[in-house]
Write a structure and sequence with these properties.
alpha+beta, 2 domains, three-stranded mixed β-sheet, two-stranded antiparallel ribbon, globular
């Protein structure tokens, strides 16, 4: 189970599964039993999407295209490199506030190397 693995173990498994998917050698068993999916719409240039949950999973996170975008900062427009994220989740299983906290925490980790280091240290 993912909750019993380190971030590095999960990353290694993702790499192996992604390679198998690219080679069209994924086993059907590798596609079953999940509770959360991540999809990368941005790899195809996607600027926005509404990901649909893959039943019986409870959530899916879509990453969009990384690009420079205008953002407001200190009352001025500035250009920032951004990665839009979109989380769809089943409200029958996940409270909306908890889902919002997850995305906020994910954003902090992605934006701040120190937060990533703290998250990795917490894993032991």
């Amino acid at each position: 189970m993912a909750d019993q693995k380190s971030v590095f173990d999960i990353a290694a498994e993702i790499k192996t599964l992604a390679e198998a998917a690219r080679n069209r050698s994924l086993d059907l068993a590798d596609l079953k039993g999940g509770t959360f999916s991540i999809t990368n719409v941005g790899v195809l240039g996607g600027e926005g999407a509404t990901p649909i949950i893959n039943y019986p999973e409870v959530a899916i996170l879509a990453t969009m295209r990384i690009a420079d975008r205008a953002r407001a900062a200190g009352g001025r427009a500035v250009v920032r490199t951004t990665l839009p994220l979109c989380l769809s989740f089943d409200h029958r299983v996940i409270d909306g506030a908890e889902a919002a906290r997850f995305v906020t925490d994910l954003k902090k980790v992605l934006e701040d190397g120190a937060a990533l280091e703290t998250a990795l240290e917490a894993e032991g």
